[in-house]
Amino acid sequence: ASKTRTAFVCGECGAEHGKWQGQCGECGAWNTLTQIVLESAAAAASPAARRSSWAGKVDPPKVTALKDVLHREDARTSTGIGEFDRVLGGGLVEGAVILIGGDPGIGKSTLLLQALASMAGRLPALYVTGEESLAQVAGRASRLGLPLDGLSALAETGVERILEQASQMQPKLLVADSVQTLWTESLTAAPGSVSQVRESAARLVRYAKETGTAIFLVGHVTKEGGIAGPRVLEHMVDAVLYFEGDSGSRFRVLRAFKNRFGAVNELGVFAMGDKGLREVPNPSAIFLSGSGRQPGSCVMVTREGTRPLMVEVQALVDASPLSNPRRVAVGLEQNRLAMLLAVLHRHGGIMVGDQDVFVNVVGGIRVQETAADLPVLLAVLSSLRDRPLADKTIAFGEVGLSGEIRPVPNGEERLKEAATHGFKRAIVPKANAPKAGTYKGMDVIAVERLADALEAAA
Ligand code: TYD
Ligand code: MG
Fold it and tell me: What CA–CA distance (Å, rounded) separates 446 from 433?
């Protein structure tokens, strides 16, 4: 029985289902299931084949006390790029598989080429390109002025041939750019299909675990936001990093979305220039628009990862011609905005039901923490009234469903950052405010309820 086994994978959450259904039973998304081909039934049925599928070992399995298992403290190799190391959790771990996702053109290939060149002197490295020719890669490397010792490249998309070359060369570091171009001979599905991307990535993951080679997989993000088709890959790899940024701005943020070897939500900040990506080790104020006092703008201090960052939240509130006005959040969660507007109505007495509301975080970065709640509402209020907030004002704080303003972690550190950047006034949760009402020359207005905050901003 050499019938091939198939399954259905959700493009949204990566869940696997035995049969097709219109809605994913895991995440509830509609029409996201794609059929994928698994290994042939005969191979799948063989226990030896199944055992070998992960670590390549065919020894019978046995139970072992964990303390007797030989392991190395995650020995880390610096990428030579401090901001990259920070996001990885302190450097690269042997045998780790890291998916780097981002929009086309954001700088994924540039970052990896720079990192590879910087590590290649210490670790033999192989750059596998499925998108650009070798001449293009070499051209870019020389334009960036990168040292090329120890760096080899291969223009190939077939996984079998890539692994064959890798087995000969034995690199300690491999980049596959991009995972969407990879395909394996064992499947008949078209290159770029979910089946192919998934199985090809699985082969590389297996190879990384067997040989201790660290592998970077580059993945383009689709319009829907997932790494093209296979969100599936996120489950297979050790770390998922997203490269974000506004195409109009030269700043780029690398964010750990999943990391088995470090903290998530750690940010690395870079600036794209004519010599490639340059680190921005003190990024605090680069996400301010610099346009000064404008209606609909509120500066906040966010703390993503381990350091504070000043970012500007902008809102545009405008009478809507639609019976169902628009709520659009860029760089923030959409549902959170809808919730905040409901709280604004119920507990702030401010009605935007007949208005379109657009909210944007300046610089193309994404703010995930709830400390953005209060700044978002202050920006909305300011736009609605067409009146800027008082000069040099910052805000942060979570807004609860009953209109209470809740404290956020690291309040003092945020205040300190704002004071350092010359802000004069802060609207913050009561529990985050110093008793004295001032902090390093900054007036700190402590608020307990949304209504107090709105009044303080008026
Ligand atoms: P690239 O790394 O090719 O993006 P990705 O691999 O994510 O698709 O980066 C492409 C963009 O970066 C391209 O629009 C040109 C710009 N760029 C610079 O501005 N300076 C440089 O030194 C390099 C190499 C690229
Ligand atoms: Mg590229």
Answer: 6
Dist. CA 74–CA 238, nearest whole Å: 13
Both 111 and 147 in one domain: the answer is yes
Q: How far apart are CA 108 and CA 364, in angstroms?
A: 16
The reply to whether 24 and 86 lie within a common domain is no
What is the average pLDDT value for the chain, to the nearest integer?
Answer: 88
Single pTM value for the model: 0.78
Q: Which stretches of 47-192 are DSSP H helices? A: 47-55, 82-88, 108-120, 134-143, 159-169
Please write the tens of the pLDDT for every residue from 50-84: 444 444 455 677 888 887 776 666 678 999 999 99
Q: Which domain holds residue 346?
A: 297-457
Is 108 assigned a ligand-binding role in the annotation?
Answer: yes
CB under 5 Å of ion ligand 2: residues: 109
The pLDDT tens digits of the residues spanning 430-443 come to 999 999 999 999 99
Q: Is residue 63 assigned to a domain?
A: no
Residue with tokens 């042939």: 40
351-371 burial: b if 16+ Cβ within 10 Å, else e: ebeebbbbbbbbbbbbbbebb
Statement to judge: residues 32 and 120 lie in one domain: no
- The reply, when asked if residue 200 is annotated as ligand binding, is no
Residues 149-176 have pLDDT tens digits of: 778 999 999 999 999 999 999 999 999 9
CA 250 / ligand 2 centre spacing (Å): 17
Domain total in the chain = 3
Output the domain CATH number for residue 349. Answer: 3.30.230.10
Has the ipTM of the complex gone over 0.85?
yes
329 part of a folded domain:
yes
